[in-house]
Transmembrane 6 superfamily member 2b (Oncorhynchus mykiss), 383 residues
Amino acid sequence: MERLVFLFSLTALVVLHCMNTTPEFQEPVVILQIGIAVLVVVWFFYFLITRRSPPKDTLFYVFAEFSFTCVIDLVSAMEHDGFISGFMEFYQKTGEPYLGTAYAIMMCYWDGIVHFIMYLMMIQRLWNSKSYRTLGLFWAGSLFANMSVFVTGIVVGKFGSDIRPAFWLNMPFLMLPIWGAIKLFNQPKNGPTLGGYRAHYDQSFNLIWRPTDLLLVLLLLGAMAFTLFRGLVALDSPLEACTIYLRQYEPYLKDPVGYPKVMMLHFLFYMLPMLGAFIYGLVVPGCTWMPDWTVFVAGGVAQCQWAHIGASLHPRTVAPFRIPDEAFLAVLAANLLYAVIPSLIAMRCTSNTNFFLTVTKLPGMEGMPWVPDADTLVEKKHN
């Protein structure tokens, strides 16, 4: 099935070429109408071919539909960067002109490559009755962060006074990831939900005797400080440190397109509390929500940081807002580390879930000789 989805998605090239060569299809309202019609036709196509053997999960239709639009996004990014031509000139003028910004181009690359691969992988697993829950949560976090920053940035940025009808085609891509995330969070988890002796043993260690978790907590504290600081910069704080950082390190935060400011505010008001919650989850055992939410947040941060780093370096960003040469390595390293930290947390939480399970208190567990108090073991070892 994933091969069929891939091949059918390529027909988006035919649709774009026809619209690009037919002036009657290039009016703003007509673009919206054709866009809605294409989405309906694509959905109806997959509905017809699966009606005799319908998918077990309705998210299949979302993945298949969005695979089609991934090709459009990839074509848009490549045409704006000059790699191809003849497909999207009309859309740049009368459809969504903000897709020509550096941030939107990097966003489209992510959607056209990373999301496309994830859709095909999830369709393959779904069609073969395999679990795709973890990958799905990463996708949901990625696409929701993508679209929430993108749509809000359009409205509050310099393009807010020139919104065309095609803007409304973004709404399904903003709403459906929320619905998908709710479905995925409510699906049964892949691994065990209750822990026994081994989980009880792992949870008996304090943070000081868990060096990996201790390192992750320190990284999370640094990420929280960086999030708070950049949020203050985006809010035009008069602090001297904020002024220096904006002028000498990341002037892109004040790009009038609006996307970087919106992203920093998303991080400040939503990401910052989640990072604090992750520290709690690494310190206090039995936080069963940790594996799911760390994956969801990791997807969002990975997408946002990809677009942010790429846009701050892209030639379509005017020179005064790009990363200064003298601060290039420091800013790039800080942003890459910030992008990686949530993924490291997610990998830790999904690879070994014992610390995050609810422990079943079996009779006599505390007295079992193979389940001693961990701190006592460590003390004896050092003595």
